[in-house]
């Protein structure tokens, strides 16, 4: 008699093994659901792991794919299309990471920093699955976003049964996942706590705060008090609340208390670990959220085995339930796991969709073409020019904008600069930099830079972004190059109010062609609009922590202060 039940999805019969218990090396039992064709044939398995709950992932069997701005889009239904996996003759294994859902054990911190490594758990699960009679001993990974990050952590442990990984839309550098240029991004809060289009983690008593576990109550109180001296944090009700009441907010509590990069983030950083990956790795990322593209490219450069990189078209959010990219995924796994010679390795190593011209560039690395960095200077009258301003500040007077906190206004104050209309297609590809000479009337603020492609009819599409906490302006001089500034984000240096400083903002990688009749618009602000042409495509909580004090930013762009963008023009 079969030890599974059978369900019907569409016109397909699927065998389901519910709540399978898998022992970890420390004795904790991980819970997983297993889906396959209703017979006993051994098949390769694709494993999905997250803290979002395996029950939630089963909605892919009953809910059509949703795309933003659908209100049914749920950012946590990411394990893949169960029916499609089964129809392609794979076993789909969906597990709850330790301390979440129906799994035992303690989940301490994020990616279990300081606790049991999620990569080690993934190793144990992969090897257990490979030994089951319904598996033929070959394993891959599946899922987007958090699931993609788990694929990298698993591969870095080198389990023998894991033959290849296919990663779509992963988040990697843990610090950069939550602090963009030092500016706190709130979407990870949504993914953990269940807010604004996300169901959140399947919290249990096994999810614990590393800060509360490692430090005495007195030390925790001191850290909380210090964090509340940040007006941005103290002025945002959710931040204020969780710092006083961390229960059921443990994962986010730890992130808020650790606003600088360092060992806490680095010890489980997937990019740091990726040098250990030698199995075939296929990476995909969509344009529109530059920090994910940045991390994906860095990961691609780090992994050691056969690899491919696809930079996909805008917009940035794929479907939930996650059903996108399955064609490429199955071609990859059919080749590397099933041994089917389908030509998947005959194509280019790197494939880049170029926005604007909507064509594809191919090559062996990103950028795929030779580039040269050119300056676009910020000039009076909101002009971006290829030539610098010849007049000094007494004639080319600076201009200011004042951002009030959201307790007083929902408006976003900003300054913008625009190029003349392009007369011929102008392609750019790579990272960039913004050198902004500015004076503040406070000791800190956010710099938020957004670059837009403006069509002749006024339609705007976001090209890329840059973020910088003013107090974290220090550069890593050894690693930074022209057009590729790198900030360590390991310390804060409060700004002297009234002092003119040069702030260097990293512009995240992008690939775009500005077509004839179009213009490039650069917007600089301290906050970002809650909703506009771009943000309406993101979940409601996918914005950055607003500033908490009235702040006036004075921007200088004159002969003595050459504020400029440094952009990667394709030769």
UniProtKB/TrEMBL annotation:
<dbReference type="Pfam" id="PF08530">
    <property type="entry name" value="PepX_C"/>
</dbReference>
<feature type="region of interest" description="Disordered">
    <location>
        <begin position="473"/>
        <end position="495"/>
    </location>
</feature>
<feature type="domain" description="Xaa-Pro dipeptidyl-peptidase C-terminal">
    <location>
        <begin position="330"/>
        <end position="566"/>
    </location>
</feature>
<dbReference type="InterPro" id="IPR000383">
    <property type="entry name" value="Xaa-Pro-like_dom"/>
</dbReference>
<dbReference type="InterPro" id="IPR029058">
    <property type="entry name" value="AB_hydrolase_fold"/>
</dbReference>
<protein>
    <submittedName>
        <fullName>Cocaine esterase</fullName>
        <ecNumber>3.1.1.84</ecNumber>
    </submittedName>
</protein>
<dbReference type="InterPro" id="IPR008979">
    <property type="entry name" value="Galactose-bd-like_sf"/>
</dbReference>
<keyword id="KW-0378">Hydrolase</keyword>
<dbReference type="InterPro" id="IPR005674">
    <property type="entry name" value="CocE/Ser_esterase"/>
</dbReference>
<dbReference type="GO" id="GO:0008239">
    <property type="term" value="F:dipeptidyl-peptidase activity"/>
</dbReference>
<dbReference type="Pfam" id="PF02129">
    <property type="entry name" value="Peptidase_S15"/>
</dbReference>
<dbReference type="InterPro" id="IPR050585">
    <property type="entry name" value="Xaa-Pro_dipeptidyl-ppase/CocE"/>
</dbReference>
<dbReference type="InterPro" id="IPR013736">
    <property type="entry name" value="Xaa-Pro_dipept_C"/>
</dbReference>
């Amino acid at each position: 008699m079969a030890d599974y039940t059978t369900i019907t999805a569409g016109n397909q019969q699927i065998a389901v093994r519910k709540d399978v218990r898998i022992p970890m090396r420390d004795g904790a039992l991980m819970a997983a659901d297993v889906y396959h064709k209703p017979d006993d044939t051994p098949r390769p398995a694709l494993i999905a792991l997250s803290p979002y709950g395996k029950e939630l992932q089963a909605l892919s069997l009953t809910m059509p794919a949703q795309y933003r701005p659908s209100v049914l889009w749920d950012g946590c239904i990411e394990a893949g299309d169960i029916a499609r996996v089964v129809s392609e003759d794979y076993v789909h294994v969906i597990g709850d990471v330790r301390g979440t859902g129906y799994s035992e054990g303690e989940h301490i911190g994020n990616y279990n920093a300081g606790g049991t490594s999620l990569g080690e758990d993934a190793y144990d699960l992969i090897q257990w699955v490979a030994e089951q009679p319904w598996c033929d001993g070959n394993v891959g990974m599946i899922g987007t976003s958090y699931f993609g990050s788990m694929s990298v952590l698993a591969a870095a442990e080198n389990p023998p049964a894991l033959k290849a990984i296919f990663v779509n839309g992963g988040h990697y550098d843990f610090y950069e996942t939550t602090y963009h240029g030092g500016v706190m991004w709130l979407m990870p809060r949504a993914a953990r706590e269940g807010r604004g289009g996300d169901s959140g983690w399947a919290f249990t008593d096994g999810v614990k705060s590393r800060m509360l576990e490692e430090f005495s109550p007195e030390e925790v109180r001191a850290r909380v008090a210090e964090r509340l001296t940040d007006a941005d944090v103290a002025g945002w009700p959710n931040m204020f609340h969780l710092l006083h009441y961390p229960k059921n907010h443990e994962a986010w509590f730890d992130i808020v208390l650790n606003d600088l990069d360092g060992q806490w983030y680095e010890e489980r950083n997937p990019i740091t670990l990726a040098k250990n990956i030698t199995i075939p790795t296929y990476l995909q990322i969509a344009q529109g959220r530059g920090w994910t593209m940045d991390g994906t490219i860095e990961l691609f450069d780090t992994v050691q085995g056969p690899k491919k990189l696809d930079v996909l078209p805008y917009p940035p959010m794929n479907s939930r339930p996650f059903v996108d990219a399955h064609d490429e995924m199955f071609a990859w796994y059919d080749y590397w796991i099933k041994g089917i010679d389908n030509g998947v390795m005959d194509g280019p190593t790197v494939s880049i969709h170029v926005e604007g011209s909507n064509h594809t560039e191919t090559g062996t690395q990103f950028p795929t073409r030779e580039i040269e960095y050119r300056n676009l200077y910020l000039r009076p009258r909101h002009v971006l020019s290829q030539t610098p301003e010849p007049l000094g500040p007494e004639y080319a007077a600076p201009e200011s904008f004042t951002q009030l906190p959201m307790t007083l206004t929902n408006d976003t104050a900003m300054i913008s600069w625009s190029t003349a209309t392009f007369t011929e297609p102008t392609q750019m590809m790579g990272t960039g930099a913004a050198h902004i000479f500015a004076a503040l009337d406070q000791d800190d603020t956010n710099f938020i830079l957004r670059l837009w492609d403006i069509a002749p009819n006024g339609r705007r599409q976001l090209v890329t972004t840059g973020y910088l906490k003013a107090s974290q302006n220090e550069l890593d001089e050894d690693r930074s190059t022209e057009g590729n500034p790198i900030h360590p984000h390991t310390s804060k240096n409060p700004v002297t109010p009234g002092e003119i400083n040069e702030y260097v903002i990293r512009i995240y990688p992008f690939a775009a062609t500005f077509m004839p009749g179009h213009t490039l618009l650069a917007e600089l602000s301290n906050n970002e609009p809650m909703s506009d042409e771009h943000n309406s495509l993101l979940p409601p909580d996918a914005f950055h922590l607003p500033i908490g004090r009235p702040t006036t930013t004075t921007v200088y762009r004159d002969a003595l202060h050459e504020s400029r963008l440094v952009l990667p023009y394709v030769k």
